[in-house]
C-alpha cells in the first residue's frame, strides 16, 4: 500500500514540511571542509563517508511523518560555522504526482556543493512501513573538480499498530567518485528480532550493524564494521 494516497490523522504528523526535514542531514556539513583540504584521494573519500554518516546522527523527538509539500513550495536556511563561513540550503517541491523534491546545498568559501532530486515513496506492511527516498545526490568538491554520487538508505518503522514504535535504517547504499576511482559500499542491516517490551509509546533505535567497504578498481582497500555502538576500522 502506498501511504502517499492515504489521509493520515494529524497526531502522527510532524509540524513541518518534508523540505525542512531533508535539511536535517546537513547539520554537520562543515566536515566537508576537511575533505576539500585533504591532498590524498583515499583520505578525502574517508572524510566524505564520515560526513555522509553524520547526516543520520540528528534524531527527531518521537516518530512522526512530516507534511507533504505542495507544488512550488520552497524552504531555505543556512548554518553559521565557527570559522565565519555559511552553508546555504534551498529546497523546492518540483512535482506533486509523483512527489519529487529538489534541493541544493553550498558553501563556496569552503569549496563544496550538493544537489539532488528525491522521489519520496512509502510501503505499508501492516504493523510496519518503509519510507524510501529514491534518487541520487551529487557532492562536488569544487577545488578538486571531483563529483561524489550518493544514494540514501530507507527508513523502516515498526510497531505502528501494536508493540514498541521504533525506526531504523536499512538497505545498501554507495558513495562513489568516478575521477579518483574510489567507491564505498555501505549496508545498513535491520534488526532481525526485536523484543517487544511494552505496548504503545515510542522509541528511536539505530541499526545494530553497519558494514562498509571502501574499494578501488574492484579491490577492497578499507572498510568499517559497527555493532552495538562499537566499531572496527580496517
From TrEMBL:
**Superkingdom of the source?**
Eukaryota
Concerning SUPFAM superfamilies, the annotation shows: Oxysterol-binding protein-like (SSF144000)
Q: Which GO terms describe its cellular component?
A: cortical endoplasmic reticulum; cytosol; membrane
Q: Does the keyword Transport apply?
A: yes
Its keywords, alphabetically, are:
Lipid transport, Lipid-binding, Transport
Q: Name one GO biological process term.
A: lipid transport
One Gene Ontology molecular-function label? cholesterol binding
Q: What's this protein's family per the entry?
A: Belongs to the OSBP family.
The name this protein goes by in its record: Oxysterol-binding protein
What taxonomic lineage is listed for the species of origin? Eukaryota, Metazoa, Ecdysozoa, Arthropoda, Hexapoda
